[in-house]
C-alpha cells in the first residue's frame, strides 16, 4: 500500500515517475488546465525514461484510466449532493482525492472491464456523477486546478471491485441525487431531455422564491443547544441569503418567524442578525443563487445524513451552548485538523529547498522541511520586496515536533545555504535580551534567528521577576510591526541615541515540543499579540528513517540564494544603506480574492468580538496580514526574477493562513489553562478526546486523573454543567456504573 508519506513529491516530473512505477499511464496536461492537448493522447504509453521530455516544465499530471492503467477507474462526484451521500452508495476505498472546495470528489478503484458512464441532471444537464474508465483521464496532484487550488496526490491502494457492481452503485447514487433535486415522481420536465434549465431571473416572482425558500427551511434540522446548533442556524441563514438570494433584512424576519420557534432555546434577534450578516459576507463553495435552480422545494432527504451539506456553510468559530440570556457567549473553535499536506508546497525555491531537506534528512518530515524552507525564503526577501499594501516578508514561524524527530535538520540546511552564499553573519540562535536583539539588528538589519525549544523563552517571560525577559517580548512585538518603518534604538544613560534601524527584518524559525509549548503559554501571552504574530505548524509523527547521505546543495538553490544576496534595491552612501524594496504587484484576480479573504477575516473578528473572545479578536486581527505576507512569499518563490502575486498565490495563502488560525485557536482553547482548576478540566477533556468512543468509565478516569475524589467530582460537575461532557450508564459483570462521554 502506498501512503501519502511515500507519495510526497509535488514536483510534476517526480510525481509522474511515482505514478508510472505504480503501473499507471500518465499524460501531460497544460499547467492549471484539466484536459490534455496532445493528439491521440489516449494511445500514449510513457515509460519512466520518456517522462523528462514531457514534464520538464510546469505541467499538470493526468492519469489515463481503465485498460492502460491496470483497470484503474475514477468515480467523479461533480455535485455537492453526490459528495454528501456517496458513502451510502459507493464501495469503501482508501484512495480518494479532491481539492480544497471539493474534498473527496474522486473515489478510486480497480474495476477491470468497467465502461465510462456519465449521469447528468435531466433538467439542468449538469454533470452529477461520472464513472471514468478506458478512454478517459483524470488530473491528479501535484497538479493545479484552474482556480489555483492544488489537487490531492493519489495515495493509498484503490479498492478492487467488480465492474458490474461499481457501475450499479454509481447509477444508484445518481438516481438518488436526481430524486433529491426533483422528487421521486418523474415529472414531464424531468422526462423531457430537451427541457431547458430554469432561468432563475425570469421564472420566479419574489413571493414564489420565498415560498420555496420556506419549504426548504422547514426541512432543515432545528438548532439544538449542545448539538451543533450554531452550525444548523448558520446553514439556515446561508440557504436564505446565499442559496435563494433573499435580502438579508427579509431573511432575518423569515428566520425569526419560521426557524427560531423550532430552536431550543430560541436565538435572540441580535444573534440571528449576526448569522445572517456572516452568511451574506463569507465566501461559499456554491455559487450565489444555486438553490434557485431547484424545481421542487423538498430536496432534503430525511433518510440521509446531510451533515456534509451543512458543513459547507458552517462557521468555524462557534459559541458554546447558551445557558440563559444573561450569560456571556464564549467562543469555541472547531478543530480543522493538522495542516493538509497539499498546503505544504509552494512552487519554486521553497519546494526545491524542501525537497533537498527531505532527501538528506535522517528522518524526513514534510512540515519541518516546509517551515525551514519558508523561513529561509522570508529571510532572503527581507528588506528587498513588499506588496502593494507594504507588507513585508518577516515571519515568526514555529514548528511543534517531538524529541528526536529531526527538528535540527532544516536549520542545518539553512545554515549551509547561507554560509555558501556569504550570508552566515545574518544568522542568530538565542535571545539573550531585548537590548541584545536590537544591537544585533542594528549591525545586520535582516536576520534569521533559528532557535530550538522556544517554550523555554516563553516560560522565562511568564515566570521571570526581572525586566530582562519582558524586554525580549517587547522587542519582538515592536520589531515585527516596524518592518515597514523605522525602529528607533534605545537611549543609553548619558549618551546620544545610537540611531535607528531602517526597515528591520527579523525572521524567527523556532521549534518546540508541543506539550511544553502549550504549557508555557498563558492567557496574557495569548492576548498580548505574540501568539497572534506566530504561524504555528505541527510536525506530527516522526517520519520514516532513511540512511543519511552527504549531498551537495543543488546548484539551482545556490543560484537563487545568491541572487537574493546580491539584490539590493535602494540607495545610500558608504556609511548607510536605505532600502527601497521592490513592489510585487497583485493581478486583478488575486486582488479580488485577497479582498474576499480580508472580509472573511473581518467577519470572524466581529464574531469573536461579539462573543467577548479576546483571544479570537487578537488572532483573527492578524490573519489577513499573514495571508498577504504568505502570498508575497509564494510569488517570490515561484519566480524570484519577475514575481507577481497571482490567483494561485492568493488562494494558497488564504487556505494556509485560515487553516492555521483555526488550528491555533482550537489548540489554545484546549491546552492553555487560566488557572490550576481549569488545567484539570482541560486534562480530563483531553483524556476523553483520546479514548475509544470518547468515553471512559468512572473508576478508570479517576485513576488516570490522579486527583482526590472531591476535586474530581468538582471537575466532573463543572464540565457537565457546561455541557462539555455527559454521564452515561454502563453495565459491568457485577453491577451498573457510570461513564463519562465527551459531547463537544
Question: What key attributes describe this structure?
Answer:
744 residues; alpha/beta; Rossmann fold; 4 domains; five-stranded parallel β-sheet; 42% helix; disordered N terminus
**What is the overall silhouette?**
globular
CATH architecture of the largest domain: 3-Layer(aba) Sandwich
Share of helix among residues?
A: 40-55%
Unreliably modeled segments: 1-9, 185-204, 295-332
First and last CA, distance: 34 Å
Mean pLDDT: 81
- Structural class comes to alpha/beta
Radius of gyration: 28 Å
Number of helices: 25
Write down the CATH class of the largest domain: Alpha Beta
Largest sheet composition: 6 strands, mixed
Tell me the strand percentage band: 15-25%
Number of strands: 25
Write structural notes for this entry.
With 744 residues, the chain is of the alpha/beta class. It has four domains: 171 residues, no CATH class; 110 residues; 298 residues, Rossmann fold; 67 residues, Winged helix-like DNA-binding domain superfamily/Winged helix DNA-binding domain (Arc Repressor Mutant, subunit A). Helices cover 42% and strands 15% of the residues. It contains 25 helices and 25 strands. The strands form eight sheets. Strands 3, 4, 5, 6, 7 and 9 form a six-stranded mixed beta sheet that branches. A hairpin with a 4-residue loop joins strand 24 and strand 25. It starts with 11 loop residues before the first helix and ends with a strand. The N terminus is likely disordered.
Amino acid at each position: 500500500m502506498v501512503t501519502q508519506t511515500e507519495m510526497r513529491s509535488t514536483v510534476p516530473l517526480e510525481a509522474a515517475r511515482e505514478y508510472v512505477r505504480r503501473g499507471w499511464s500518465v499524460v501531460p496536461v497544460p499547467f492549471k488546465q484539466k484536459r490534455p492537448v496532445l493528439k491521440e493522447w489516449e494511445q500514449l504509453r510513457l515509460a519512466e525514461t520518456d517522462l523528462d521530455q514531457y514534464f520538464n516544465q510546469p505541467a499538470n499530471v493526468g492519469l489515463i484510466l481503465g485498460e492502460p492503467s491496470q483497470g484503474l477507474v475514477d468515480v467523479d462526484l461533480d455535485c455537492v449532493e453526490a459528495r454528501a451521500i456517496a458513502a451510502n452508495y459507493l464501495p469503501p476505498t482508501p484512495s480518494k482525492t479532491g481539492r480544497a472546495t471539493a474534498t473527496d470528489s474522486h473515489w478510486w478503484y480497480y474495476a477491470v472491464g468497467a465502461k465510462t458512464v456519465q449521469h447528468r441532471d435531466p433538467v439542468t444537464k449538469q454533470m452529477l456523477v461520472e464513472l471514468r474508465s478506458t478512454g478517459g483521464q483524470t488530473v491528479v496532484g501535484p497538479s493545479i486546478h484552474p482556480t489555483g487550488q492544488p489537487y490531492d496526490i493519489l495515495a493509498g491502494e484503490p479498492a478492487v471491485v467488480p465492474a458490474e457492481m461499481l457501475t450499479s452503485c454509481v447509477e444508484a447514487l445518481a438516481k438518488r441525487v436526481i430524486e433529491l433535486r426533483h422528487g421521486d415522481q418523474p415529472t414531464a420536465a424531468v422526462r423531457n431531455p430537451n427541457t431547458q434549465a430554469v432561468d432563475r431571473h425570469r421564472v420566479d416572482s419574489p413571493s414564489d422564491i420565498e415560498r420555496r425558500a420556506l419549504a426548504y427551511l422547514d426541512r432543515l434540522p432545528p438548532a439544538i443547544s449542545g448539538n451543533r446548533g450554531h452550525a444548523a442556524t448558520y446553514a439556515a441563514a446561508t440557504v436564505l441569503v446565499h442559496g435563494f438570494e433573499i435580502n438579508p433584512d427579509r431573511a432575518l424576519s423569515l428566520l425569526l418567524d419560521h426557524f427560531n420557534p423550532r430552536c431550543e432555546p430560541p436565538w435572540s434577534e441580535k444573534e440571528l442578525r449576526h448569522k445572517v450578516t456572516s452568511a451574506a459576507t463569507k465566501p461559499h463553495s456554491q455559487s450565489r443563487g444555486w438553490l434557485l435552480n431547484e424545481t421542487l422545494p423538498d430536496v432534503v432527504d430525511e433518510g440521509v445524513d446531510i451533515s456534509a451539506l451543512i458543513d459547507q456553510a458552517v462557521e468555524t468559530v462557534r459559541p458554546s451552548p447558551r445557558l440563559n440570556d444573561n450569560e456571556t457567549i464564549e467562543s469555541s473553535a472547531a478543530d480543522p485538523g493538522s495542516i493538509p499536506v497539499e498546503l505544504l508546497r509552494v512552487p519554486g525555491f521553497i519546494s526545491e529547498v524542501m525537497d533537498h531537506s527531505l532527501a538528506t534528512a535522517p528522518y524526513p518530515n514534510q512540515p519541518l522541511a516546509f517551515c525551514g524552507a519558508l523561513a529561509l525564503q522570508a529571510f532572503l526577501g527581507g528588506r528587498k520586496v513588499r506588496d502593494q499594501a507594504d507588507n513585508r516578508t518577516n515571519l515568526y514561524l514555529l514548528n511543534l515536533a517531538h524529541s528526536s524527530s529531526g527538528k535540527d535538520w532544516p536549520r542545518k540546511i539553512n545554515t549551509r545555504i547561507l554560509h555558501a552564499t556569504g550570508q552566515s553573519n545574518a544568522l542568530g540562535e538565542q535571545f539573550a535580551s531585548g537590548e541584545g536583539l536590537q544591537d544585533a539588528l542594528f549591525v545586520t538589519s535582516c536576520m534569521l534567528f533559528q532557535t530550538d525549544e522556544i517554550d523555554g523563552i516563553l516560560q522565562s517571560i511568564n515566570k521571570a521577576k526581572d525586566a530582562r525577559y519582558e524586554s525580549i517580548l517587547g522587542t519582538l512585538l515592536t520589531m515585527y510591526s516596524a518592518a515597514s518603518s523605522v525602529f528607533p534604538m534605545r537611549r543609553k544613560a548619558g549618551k546620544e541615541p545610537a540611531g535607528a534601524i531602517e526597515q528591520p527584518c527579523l525572521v524567527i524559525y523556532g521549534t518546540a515540543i508541543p506539550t511544553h509549548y502549550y504549557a508555557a503559554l498563558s492567557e496574557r501571552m495569548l492576548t498580548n499579540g505574540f501568539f497572534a504574530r506566530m504561524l504555528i505548524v505541527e510536525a506530527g509523527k516522526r517520519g520514516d528513517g532513511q540512511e543519511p547521505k552527504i549531498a551537495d546543495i543543488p546548484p539551482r538553490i545556490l543560484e537563487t540564494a545568491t541572487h537574493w544576496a546580491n539584490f539590493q534595491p535602494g540607495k545610500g552612501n558608504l556609511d548607510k544603506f536605505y532600502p527601497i524594496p521592490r513592489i510585487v504587484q497583485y493581478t486583478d484576480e488575486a486582488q479580488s480574492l485577497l479582498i474576499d479573504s480580508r472580509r472573511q477575516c473581518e467577519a470572524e473578528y466581529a464574531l469573536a468580538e461579539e462573543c467577548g473572545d479576546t483571544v479570537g479578536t487578537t488572532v483573527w486581527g492578524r490573519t489577513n496580514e499573514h495571508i498577504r505576507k504568505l502570498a508575497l512569499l509564494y510569488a517570490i518563490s515561484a519566480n524570484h526574477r519577475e514575481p507577481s502575486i497571482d490567483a494561485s498565490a492568493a488562494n494558497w495563502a488564504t487556505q494556509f493562513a485560515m487553516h492555521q488560525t483555526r488550528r491555533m485557536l482550537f489548540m489554545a482553547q484546549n491546552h492553555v489553562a487560566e488557572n490550576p482548576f481549569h488545567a484539570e478540566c482541560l486534562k480530563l477533556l483531553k483524556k476523553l478526546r483520546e479514548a475509544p468512543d470518547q468515553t471512559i468509565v468512572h473508576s478508570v478516569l479517576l485513576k488516570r486523573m490522579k486527583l482526590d475524589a472531591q476535586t474530581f467530582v468538582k471537575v466532573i460537575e463543572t464540565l457537565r454543567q457546561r455541557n462539555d461532557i455527559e454521564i452515561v450508564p454502563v453495565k459491568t459483570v457485577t453491577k451498573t456504573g457510570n461513564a463519562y462521554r465527551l459531547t463537544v
